[in-house]
Amino acid sequence: MPSPAGTDTPSAVNRRRFLKTSLGGSAALVAAPTLVSWLGAADAKAATNPLPFVDDYRTNLTTNLTPETNAVVRILGGFARIWKTGGAWNTGTPLRPEILRANVRYCAAVTTARTEAQGREAFVYDRQHQSYAMIGGLGPLAGLYRQGAKAVTSITAAPDTTPATTVSDAVPADAPAGSAIGAGSYTSDLGLVAKLVDTVRGPFASGNPGKYAFQYPRPWRMNENSEVVDTGRTDALGYPVYDSKVVVVPQLLRQRGTSPADDGGFPSGHTNAFHLASLAFAYAVPERFQELVTRALELSHTRIVSGMHSTVDVLGGRVMATALAAAALADPANAELKAAARAQALAWFTERTGTTADTLFAHAHSDANDAYADRKANARANRPRLTYVLERQGRKEPLTVPKGAEVLLETRQPYLTAAQRREVLRSTALPSGYVLLDGFEQWGRLDLFTAADGYGSFDSDVTVTLEASKGGFHTADAWRNDIEGDGGLTKRGSGTLTLTGHNRYHGGTLLEAGTLVAGHADALGQGDVRLTGGTLRAGLPVRVRGTWVQESGAVLDLTVRRGHGAVLTVSGRVRLERGAVLSLRPDPERPPVAGTVVPVIEASALRGQFDRVELDSDTLRAVPVYTADGLSVRILKR
Q1: Rg (Cα) of the chain, in Å, rounded?
Q2: Angle, to 10 degrees, between the axis of helix 289-305 and the axis of helix 97-113?
Q3: Is the domain of 473 the same as that of 376?
Q4: Per-residue pLDDT, 49
Q5: Cα separation of 148 and 156, whole Å?
Q6: From residue 625, how far is each of 382, 576, 578 by CA, in Å?
Q7: Where is the chain membrane-spanning (predicted)?
């Protein structure tokens, strides 16, 4: 790629000056006038009346290198508070040197601690087509996807030594006819999905304009020690040798760019590509949404492990990819394609696995050897990779979710309205104060992994309707976050919603239809609970901080076990109206036995009785025993 106008090959003197200054030395650089001098003044919010990113993303071209002209440069403006671009790749000025020092030190620590296996893995993901690499996030569905899309790669392992030349992915000679690298062939059975991935990664999704605009060097061109300068030596490949601890994977030495001016570090292009592909796949296969997001973060981390990129580079790649994926998916020109790709993927996987739209999710999480089988482990790995070396500073500021961002959850939470998906994104976002993530529209604050687990808070009342007849996530879904807020929840529709968080919302819970599952002792929050219809199910003991009202036709479905306290504890009063039903299930591991009395409800007061008390057993029956403050059942033989 040609160099931008006005850039020159850096001299050794300039390299030394850059190393000393950017990493906290005493020397001062005065940046020459540049085509991106705006970076020294303020972040991209200074642009006059900027359009929302999703309406302006097609401006991301190498001819546009300012926030006024390029939407990607604008949303990455948080970096302008850290780094002031100079007239060439090595004449920038650190505005937050403590962050840039921590950035390089992190890279040095990771690359020097890297194992040989990690280095080989980093080589594979550096050279392999990024869209193909993301297929691994499909877990049990990955093999079927490769088959259906005819997706192949020639990069499956790292060589033992440094390759003699540049290595590129290609279709292997023995691959089936019609095979393609990347997401696959457009003429395959999953051709629409492959086309969607490539469309999201389209002509306006390149990281190169950002690289030219910011001109922030890669970590292997820097050194954490401000007193160490260019040694004057070159390595076997002709690169300058620094007394640096950032160690590039040996197999990647000849894969590096040779022109610093054309080989900037921020933002990371590979990271951008990984996340773009992951979100396109996640739209078509939402059954693996969180795993695909996790894989994108994991593969992006290999850019740091390899020594090819730094933490801020990777953060920038994620920020731009999140916005670009939303823009492409929200673009009316792609509406037909994205819907067709989702339908094609669902049809292919259900047919090949013998599942339905309702059971595909379970199948997609059925492999114990799946690298992403442990959701909690995924969450633990993801969280630090959203901020890396950045430390939070400043006051807590509310987030206005960027226009169009809700499309990223469109297939994962199809039962929510666009406004509700925006609220999910807002209530699960990272806090403000991470300088690089607080750029224009604050795309970097979105936490898509957490958002896939539903609301983080009910700041106003939420009504959700799941209709089982529509299939998939309409039939059943789970909200796993700990939900706070002053609002309450109303559940409607014939589908099932499961709450597994330690919830502290205060507005109460109303069940009108379908099934609401309490998967945590405090799943129902701290307000009143009212059942006007449907079934409330709890497999574990549940606490209600307010009152409990159960109307005619509504079912309370509880699991009872021997030697345990009440299954439902209510701080306030319980009122049972005529027609209310209690359905009990014996615990499979500790079932109650005949002749015992099992406590079921404990409250400050109980009024009314259940119309029916049912026990799901062929050999036992339950006889209710009411008191002024609760209910027990006597277990008898049939």
Answers
A1: 28
A2: 90
A3: no
A4: 85
A5: 20
A6: 50, 14, 17
A7: none
Same domain membership, residue 463 and residue 347: no
Query: For 221-237, what is each residue's pLDDT tens digit?
Result: 885 333 333 455 555 54
Predicted local distance difference test score (pLDDT) of residue 44? 39
Task: Say whether pTM exceeds 0.85.
Answer: yes
Distance CA 117, CA 109 (A): 17
Residue 558 domain-assigned (yes or no): yes
What three-state secondary structure class fits 276? helix
26-82 tens-digit pLDDT: 222 222 223 334 444 444 344 568 999 999 999 999 999 999 999 999 999 999 999
Tokens 């482990």 — which residue?
Answer: 377
pLDDT, residue 585, reads 97
Whether 377 and 474 map to the same domain: the answer is no
Query: Distance from first CA to last CA of the chain, Å, rounded?
Result: 82
Out of 318, 352, 382, a domain closes at 382
Among 448, 427, 446, residue whose Cα is nearest residue 438: 446
Whether residues 491 and 349 fall in one domain: no
| Residue 111: half-sphere exposure toward Cβ, Cα within 13 Å | 25
Question: What is d(CA 70, CA 60) in angstroms, rounded to the nearest whole number?
Answer: 5
Question: How far is Cα 7 from Cα 244, in angstroms, rounded to an integer?
Answer: 26
pLDDT at position 234, please? 59
Give the Cβ contact number of residue 369 at 10 Å: 7
Q: Which residue in 484, 339, 323 sits closest to 405, CA to CA?
A: 323
What residues does 635 pair with on adjacent strands? 622
- Looking at the domain assignment, is residue 424 inside a domain? no
Number of domains in the chain: 2
Q: Is residue 509 part of a domain?
A: yes
Residues of the chain falling short of pLDDT 70: 1-48, 223-244
Helices (H) and strands (E) in the chain, counts: 17, 21
Which of 348, 382, 416 represents a domain boundary (last residue)?
A: 382
Q: DSSP 3-state assignment of 515?
A: strand
Copy the structure tokens of residue 549.
């009202």
Residues 220 and 333 in one domain: yes
Cα separation values, 346 from 2, 338, 365, 366, Å:
43, 12, 15, 17
Length of the chain in residues, anyone? 638
Q: CA-to-CA distance for 600 and 564, rounded, in angstroms? A: 10
What pLDDT score does 4 carry?
31
Residue 14 falls inside a structural domain? no
> Which domain does 218 fall in, by range?
21-382
Integer Cα distance of 14 and 9 in angstroms: 10
Question: Could you tell me if 111 and 260 lie in one domain?
Answer: yes
